[in-house]
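Incident log, structure service

09:12 report received: a user says their structure output differs between two submissions of the same chain.
09:20 pulled the input from the user's history:
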Amino acid sequence: MKPATTLSLVVIAVLATVVIEESRLKHYRSELADLQALRATQPAPERVEEEPEAVVESSAASVGHELPANFPVPNSEEIKTLAASPRAGLYLELGLTVTEQAYVENLITGLRKQQQELAAAWIAAAPDQRADLEAKLREAEVTTDEALRGFFREEKEFKVVQDALALQPDVELYRQLEPYLSVQGVGFNKTKEDRFIEALHQIRMTVGGIDWNSPDALPFHATGTAADRFRQEWKRINEGLEKVLPVFLDRRELEAVEAARKELYESLKETISPADEAGPEEEAPAAEEPADQ
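09:34 re-ran on a clean worker, output below:
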């Protein structure tokens, strides 16, 4: 085939392709125009707003506290009492509402009152009546423990409460010491108060001291050894305090603590050991002179 003829055929093929593509484009444009016209005659569809999914808080992130249905909201006087509670800081740390604070405080103070009343009854009771009182003491402790566990459903919160309750005897002893310190013209700020209570607790645990307002004291009352046990325990705690308190108290404060503890010992001795058990009169266990600051 000659080159001229070949070139002519190529040109014809290209022109035929262009014509075909142009015809197809016209067809597509016609269909698009028809669709646009049809859409213009129909109403626009309403826009449906999708509702956001409800946010479900994870139980691991926020565990509620379960109050009894009929537990009352505390009044203004009860709120003031809560604010003065030695556990007020604990309740704030746990993020409890005022009503929740009142509920937990009622459980704790209620158990303490039961323990003291039943312990006093046990001391005065005949030997054959004591087993029933001991059973009531155990029942009161179990009931309170179950109620607290039911309220604090997170184990870590319950552990915080348990640790705080372990300090209760030492907090109570400090509160009993405060009026005697006040007579000496001494008062501690929150930091020193916390350190003092922690020192009392650690020393009591180290020397094997007991909570004298709890059932732990009953065996000593039963055997008539409460007075002697209390005296020895008080002396050993004094010895521990003499080593720890100078770390954060000045000389005047140390002297005030020594005098206040002597006064408190004489007061508590009468409640720990009745007159018929106490035996010959004795002085408070002596404390060493504080070292110069």
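09:41 both user submissions now match this output. Likely a transient worker issue. Closing.
09:42 reviewer note: The chain has two domains: 68-166, 168-293. Residues 4 and 10 are 10 Å apart (CA to CA).
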